Amino acid sequence: MLDVRRLHMLKTVAARGSIAAAAQALGLSAGAVSQQLSALRRDVGVDLLRPDGRTVALTEPGRVLLEHADRILAAVQEAESAVAAVKGTVGTTVTLAALPSTIAQIVAPALDELRSQHPQLTVTCLVTDQAQLRELTLGTVDVVLGQRYHHLPDTPPRGIAVSPLLDDPLLVVTAADQADERPVALRELATHSLAVPPATTDCGKAILHACHQAGFTPTTHYVTADIAAQLTLARAGLATALVPRTAIDPATPGIRTAPIEDHPILRLLFAATRHTETENPTTTAVIAALRTATRHHIAATRPGPAPHPLNDPDAW
């Protein structure tokens, strides 16, 4: 009988490209992973992996086995969720992956809410910009607080359930003494020196796309994904930054923010989990806490009646 843990190891090696990288992700030694994969090879009687330069790749039998492994692992996940639903109680551990720009305004309040409502639950929070949804499909994390920019085509990986949370516009950030708070036409920034994320990031691509739509190529003298650095450069009057509203503390001194009026740049913040037919009480509790924190953030930062966070599953 095939061992589910070994199938998971095979899937992780295929995704990471090497036994060493898979071992690091799984918290095991490379030797332990190699031993388990050797045992899996003996179980099926055929080579599953082959050298591919400095990495490894699946053989044809390995690819076929992985296709079945995906369905097997999904069924195991479904069974675990069904049992948890029958128990009706929130579990004791969960892992959340979140963007750095969401920590202060959404993640920290959500974790505080979870600590109050479910004191038995220990949340491990991985703060990362990279490949959160892949980690979800590999089982490394249980919930992802991620982002998607609306004008960039994208679809969630197979087996992922997405719960939209909030439309989060990028704001124009300058030194407090250099601009007023009126809406800004994006083309006005054609003469500005911008502090922007690298063009390889989702946010960097979104900014470049919007600027090109407005008819110019931005002057990017400062390239950094560190939002704190972008705000520091703006405060010093050295650059203009384009920063998601959620990533800006309203009490930050020395800066002024303004919306973009003609070519708005919007990111959709979402919570994602592995799809199961039965809701898992633990991941459901985490998403509920993220929704509560989002509502409180909206109420605290926007004048007038607070709109509800997005709840349209087709918004992806």
SS strand fraction: 15-25%
* Helix and strand composition category: alpha/beta
The radius of gyration is 22 Å
**Count of helix runs:** 9
Unreliable stretches, pLDDT < 50, 5 or more residues?
304-309, 311-315
Biggest sheet descriptor: 9 strands, mixed
Mean pLDDT, nearest integer? 87
Helix-strand string: HHHEEHEHEHEEEHEHEEEH
- Please give the share of residues in helix: 40-55%
Shape: globular
| Assembly annotation | single chain
* Extended strand count: 11
Gap between N and C termini, in Å?
39 Å
Summarize the topology.
Elements: H1 4-16, H2 19-26, H3 30-44, E1 49-52, E2 55-58, H4 60-87, E3 93-98, H5 103-117, E4 122-127, H6 132-138, E5 143-149, E6 160-175, E7 193-196, H7 202-213, E8 219-223, H8 227-235, E9 240-244, E10 255-258, E11 266-274, H9 281-301
Parallel strand pairs: 3-4, 3-5, 7-8, 7-9
Antiparallel strand pairs: 1-2, 5-11, 6-9, 6-10, 6-11
Helix pairs in contact: 1-2, 1-3, 1-4, 2-3, 5-9
What does this structure look like?
It is a single chain. The strands form two sheets. Strands 3, 4, 5, 6, 7, 8, 9, 10 and 11 form a nine-stranded mixed beta sheet that branches. 41% of the residues lie in helices and 22% in strands. Helix 1 packs across helix 2, helix 1 crosses helix 3 and helix 2 (19-26) crosses helix 3. By secondary structure, the protein is α/β, with parallel strands linked by helices. Helix 7 links the parallel strand 7 and strand 8. It has helices at 4-16, 19-26, 30-44, 60-87, 103-117, 132-138, 202-213, 227-235, 281-301; strands at residues 49-52, 55-58, 93-98, 122-127, 143-149, 160-175, 193-196, 219-223, 240-244, 255-258, 266-274. It is globular.
